[in-house]
Amino acid sequence: MIIKEVKNKLFSVPFIxxxxxxxxxxxxxxxLIVEIETNESFIGTGYLQPIIGRLLSVEMCINEMLKLLxxxxxxxxx
Length: 78
What we know:
It contains 1 helix and 3 strands; from the N terminus they run βββα. The chain is of the alpha+beta class. The mean pLDDT is 86. 21% of the residues lie in helices and 51% in strands. β2 and β3 form a beta hairpin. The protein is elongated, with a radius of gyration of 16 Å.
């Protein structure tokens, strides 16, 4: 099975009941969803949910570095 496509999506999700972290209220949380599709149409999904944001840099690393390394490789190696 060869990796055909890597897609990611960044979401900001509001908390229904905001929590506090070190006296700072957390009203939204960021989620990064990643999908990897193979040439046999299998799709694997994963997500990252940090306590405090800054997912734009992670999304950029996936788009600019990891996609280039993964597409065309066998998913059985990882």
